[in-house]
Amino acid sequence: MTKSDKIYEMFVPNVGESINEVTISSWLKSNGDYVELDEIIAEIDSDKATFELTAEASGNLIIEAEEGTTLEIGKLICKIEIKEISKEKKESQDQKEVLTENKSEVITKERSESTPVAKKIMDEKGIDPKEISGTGAGGKITKEDVINSEQKVEASSTADSSEVQTVGNRNQRREKMTQLRKTISKRLVSVKNETAMLTTFNEVNMEPIMNLRKKYKESFKEKYEVNLGFMSFFTKACCIALSDWPAVNALLDENEIVYNDYCDISIAVSTPKGLVVPVIRNAESLSFDQIEKEIIRLATKARDGKLSIEEMQGGTFTITNGGIFGSMMSTPIINSPQSAILGMHNIVKRPMVVNDEIKIKPMMYLALSYDHRIIDGRESVSFLVRVKELLEDPSRLMLKI
């Protein structure tokens, strides 16, 4: 380092209210690499979301905390050595950049369609991005795409050698829990220990909604440019039922019950790093197409790790759909500090008695877990019956009756 060189210190940024520490998920640049101002150099995990760390200066990176390290907000995370370049050296570098511009053009084009983490993994393992199909926005290659591609290659290799293998694989591996997984674990145990949680069940005939979707799905998509899904029906039904039974939309704050005259519906989304619960604000005032578009927006950001803290705070009621994974019935755990959560499940054709006749109907079990400290049995059962009635006669959702 010359006398004219400078050291710029970077500290863990304040990424959100109530977040006291973060864990370094991955460095996207190696120690000593040259980084540009505002270039993404690392990913950091909090107990709520994943954030990108950008360089606050241009220069050579000096890593002070390795991957997996947990740091408090404000602690030193890295340094950047800012080198003063002479005029002659700058001209030499510019000439080199011109010579290599054409050569790197193809590589840059290929890798620009990848997330920073995906680029790093492909560079380290020598993976050709042409061999991977991206599932991210606009076909962008994500971290999960690269990992899945590796697993397919490993599975293929294992299958080829299975004929000569006589002993089973007994390998083990250990992975450090992410900050998000630690928080999920603590909250789930806390809810079980600190609430009087009960679950009540019912079942709903999904035939009316399925017929309605079948009849109008094409015209709905043509007009609103979004598919008509089940979640918008369930969200609208819950909003109406919550207005009828406000205790289900309330929360306990020490010795007071806080009643909300609005419905901020939390939607459980499964991501590679764990479960996150973004919030649809004022869902009671949104139309079907607005709800569907908001769900897509939030789910996409959740899976890409781009949700903000504000998008995950302040829900009043949660809906979770285990049916997409094949769940027939479950007892979902309350999303604290909320007082209730509705669990959707898979749709199965079952024989049902209709007007003293056996008929095959597409049925779904519903589960409402609730905090008995706030919600009585009459309120919980009545709420779930109201949701059932609205779903089995979807025209009532439009008329709010």
Task: Looking at this protein, list some descriptive labels.
401 residues, alpha+beta, OB fold (Dihydrolipoamide Acetyltransferase, E2P), Chloramphenicol Acetyltransferase, 7-stranded mixed beta sheet, 4-stranded antiparallel beta sheet, 9 helices
Write the topology of this structure.
Layout: E1 6-11, E2 21-27, E3 34-35, E4 40-45, E5 50-54, E6 59-63, E7 70-72, E8 76-82, H1 87-111, H2 116-125, H3 143-161, H4 179-194, E9 197-205, H5 207-224, H6 230-244, E10 251-253, E11 256-258, E12 265-267, E13 269-271, E14 274-276, E15 279-280, H7 288-303, E16 317-321, E17 340-344, E18 348-354, E19 357-371, H8 377-392, H9 395-399
Parallel strand pairs: 12-16, 16-17
Antiparallel strand pairs: 1-8, 2-4, 2-7, 3-6, 4-5, 6-8, 9-19, 10-11, 12-15, 13-14, 17-19, 18-19
Compact description:
With 401 residues, the chain is α+β, with helices and mostly antiparallel strands. Helices cover 35% and strands 25% of the residues.
